[in-house]
Amino acid sequence: MATTEEELFASVDALLEEEPQLPPPAERARLREAAGITQARLAQALELKSTQSIKNWENGRSEPTGPRLKAYQRLLNGWAAKYPAHGTPAAVLAPAPMAVPQPQVPETFTGPATPEATEPKTAAPVQAPAVQPAPERPARPATSRRPAAKKAAPAPDPRFPHGPLAVLDGDGCAYGVDGIVLDCPATTIPELVEWTLRESGLGAPKLNRYGKDSDPLIVLTAAAAVKLGLPERLEGHEQRRSLRLPEDHPVVQQVAKAKWQLTQRGFGPWARIYRKAQGRERQCVQLAVLSWDALDERSWPGVSEMGPADIARVLGVYAQRVITPRGSTAVSGLELMTALRPPTKPERDEGTGNWVSAYNPGSLGTEPMDPAPPEATPEHPVVVNSGWRGRFLNEEAYQWVRSVDTLTDEECTLPYAVGLDLNTAFLAAAARLVVGLSAPDHFHAPKFNPKIPGSWLVDLSHVELDPRLPSPFTPDGSRPTGPAWYQTHTVAYAQELGSDVHPIEAYLRRETGAYLDPWHDRLKTAYVDILADLGVTKGLSDAEFLAAMEQHKQVDPALAAVLSAIKATVKGGVGKLRERPQGKHFKEGERWPALQRPTWRPDIRAAVISKARVNMHRKLNNMAKMTGLYPLAVLSDCVVYPSPGASPLDFLPYAASGKPQPGGFRLGPTPGLAKLEGVQEMAWAVDLMEKGLNPARHIKGGDV
């Protein structure tokens, strides 16, 4: 379709309205020095608090914004006319392009990011017809420079030229990804929100064509928080992550006075500030306060102690490979599920011809779904209101210790106990996992079908297993004593072991799908890629793999922290599928906030854990058949074996060719494969052995 004259005029007008670009940073410094003006005097003329901003502008770390941009541009133009470089006419010098120009696209652009990385800058007028009407205050992305070493990186989305997030320090410098530093003039939270949405150029594109763009994230250092009127610390009797600013706090009142809103969780370590969306354009900013323990040490080890630029790097890598953080890693894991499987999609109404929001097949939809009574928790309204007296699904990870009576003299004399930890075992269990998408239906005496996800009441107490192995049917490894509720994978494994199963009743789901597949794929790719960046690659031999795993945290502590966060995202996301009520004021039978989410799905959580536990038992069983070795203890995804040496190479089964035997534990960086567990992470095994489980004297060389 040919472009009309009006569309071309609109494109030209858009170019005319754009702010002129400043000369390159080196030229700015040359002009100031040629005029004989010091950085301090220039900072005073532009009413800056310090000379740091001038230094940032002249070395390319940040750019001026707002009124100072126009004033600085006018000053540079005047100096360029007086002091041309090597006699070059001033017209050539101003405005000069940046060393690495960013696409100038209004932030109200909501269409797909179609330009290729190699597309020339003259393509901007072609995009103009897709731009939505500009708001009353025209948005202008801030400009910046990227280090030369980063030029080979993929071009950012033109709507978000400065990446997904920034870490704001007390001097007004906002540190972004790839070394970007922006100058943020905000002195209040409302001003910060306005600057983030209108000038920062922060944000991230949606992960699914039917999803939503990620809201920009601003992380506040302690100094930045105090500068913006927030307390440096949140104090109270509750856990700090549960604390909130009171409603009468000046900052909360500032937010309300500026016509912004806070979500129901209020202003805490992770605060979301928003206004009602205008059309397709979201108006929402996510804040994280570092000194309020926004970054949990267990999920983000050492990150809160890093400098702003390093924090921006850690969170930026996580945002680019997983998702822009929206809270704890558990919250981010759950949000990632929805971002990759949006609940709705646009669909044309055949009657009216209008586009309407319709259910997106394969998703969990927009409405919460009550579980079957045995899948719920004892305090759930489904249980309390129905008077349910039956037992509950108990699909949990292993926490098993082998009976001392089953230990042999040879096992007791082995000098080492070596722990094998399965890489992200729950993530591996989520691969190609079929779960229910519809409400549960109740059946009496159904025929077992391993392809139907659900909960089955069945008696597995008759299944005979080796007492040196944990039972695959219970978390503590004990033998079942009668009928109990099990998830489909657990019952299917009993059938695989040769048992004839006869369910008494079941709650099954007719609509099914591999809901977690895209979630698994994205997290697996992120995990494997980060390990590869740390030198742990798939092509290593087992010995090389163990050596690389010993050193990977020292190679790059920042990437090691991202790796830890990815693991926490997996476990936390699965755990959030059955979030329990929080707060001392909760009463049994009430609906707590988590129940309002379509992602409150304890049956999906049970399916993941059941499959992970079954996978673990299958490996334990195969190891016993191939080597005659039996574990000493199993905790979740870690299994401890007695060993003649400090390395798993001393007891893992290998073929004559030197290749690992299939079916048992294998070493490698892929989720589901094993790595050697460190001494500190095996402290629980030490405690068990001190109680008389095993007289072994060492764990991987460390004294018990």
Description:
Helices cover 32% and strands 13% of the residues. α11 crosses α19 (557-576), α17 packs antiparallel against α19 (557-576) and α18 (542-555) crosses α19. Residues 87-153 and 692-704 have low confidence and may be disordered. It is of the alpha+beta class. The strands form 6 sheets. Strands 3-2-1-4-7-6-5 form a 7-stranded mixed β-sheet. A 5-stranded antiparallel β-sheet has the order 10-18-19-11-20. The N and C termini lie far apart (77 Å).
List the helices and strands and how they pair.
Elements (H helix, E strand, L loop, with lengths): L4 H13 L7 H10 L4 H7 L6 H8 L7 H16 L7 H4 L30 H4 L37 E4 L4 E3 L5 E3 L5 H10 L18 E4 L1 H6 L22 H8 L3 E2 L7 E9 L2 E9 L18 H14 L7 H12 L3 E5 L6 E5 L21 H6 L12 E3 L7 H5 L2 E7 L2 H6 L4 E2 L4 E4 L9 E6 L23 E5 H9 L8 E4 L3 E2 L3 H17 L8 H14 L1 H20 L25 H26 L5 E3 L2 E6 L30 E3 L6 H8 L7 E2 L2 E2 L1
Helix pairs in contact: 11-19, 12-19, 16-20, 17-19, 18-19
SS-based class: alpha+beta
In round numbers, the mean pLDDT is 84
Counted beta strands: 22
Indicate the proportion of strand residues.
Answer: 5-15%
Radius of gyration: 30 Å
Main sheet specs? 7 strands, mixed
Number of helical segments?
Answer: 21
Strand order of the largest sheet: 3-2-1-4-7-6-5
Q: Give the fraction of residues assigned to helices.
A: 25-40%
Shape: globular
Cα(first) to Cα(last) distance is 77 Å
Low-confidence stretches: 87-153, 692-704
